[in-house]
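RECORD CONTENTS
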Amino acid sequence: MTLPALAETAGLLAATGKGLLAMDESTGTCNRRFAAAGIAQTLAMRHAYRELLLTAPGLGECISGVILVDETVRQAQADGTPFVQIAQEAGLLVGIKVDTGAQDLAAHPGEKITEGLDGLRERLQGYAALGARFAKWRGVFAVDGRRLPSPACIDANAHALARYAALCQEAGLVPIVEPEVLMDGAHTQQRCQQVTEAVLRGVFAQLARQDVRLEALILKPNMVIAGLACPTQHSDAEVAEATLQCLRRVVPAAVPGIMFLSGGQSGRDASMRLNALHQRPGSPWPLSFSFARALQHPALDIWAGQDANRAAAQAALVHRARCNRAALSGEYDTAMETR
């Protein structure tokens, strides 16, 4: 795929008024969420749940693309219709998570390195043949008051993200570059901003070194938020101001779109902060969302593994997507939660 075609796909992903549904949880993560909801942790139940998400009526009104995992991208409905085709017919671009997870970073206790580069070129070619148009790779950064993340952790994950992105563009897939500064811990919002800026500087330096074309990628960062255990939590407006300041300092204007992850935020908090971001003028980039739990959680609880709850669960998913669509124009209000 040519660079203009990749840039066009990136623009479609970041389309005004739409975001991404990340349904790319690993088997282990999905099973843990099922266990918490009292759902059997089986392949059949994962298949049923992901089919429920993909076939939600009206999802394409608010969602531009879906991020799948290897298990899901190869699955089909009972009538043989591939999940990829179902997504495409709903107007959704298909993406695929291609990292193989975070492992301990040698000689750096408490830090992780994301793996999956071995054999990635061939895997990307296979996913493109299945109909994928974009891919995702996540690097994670733990934070404390002073020590973490180390320069070694930032360098290692930034290099992996850049090599992944270059391989994606070679294979004709738009890379979603996801450097996540984790919310776990008691660090302040100021410390989160300091670390996020350092991580993003490292990532864009490595992207340039690997000759990745910025106009053909999507950035998926965290918002600048104090750690969950920090005694001082900031208003939505303060989160928006710190986040935009951070991004303006570091992210090149050539990036066609920024789609925030939700991390450990509730669906309502994520929507409120996304809304606050769109009530502040002057962003050089389209700002949108690529949420997993913040979109799925109500639907999962309602479904509870029971087919009789399918329609209500799908309605809950689409409701959360519509809340976030409203936030993209600064029109979200918590009153929407009761409608």
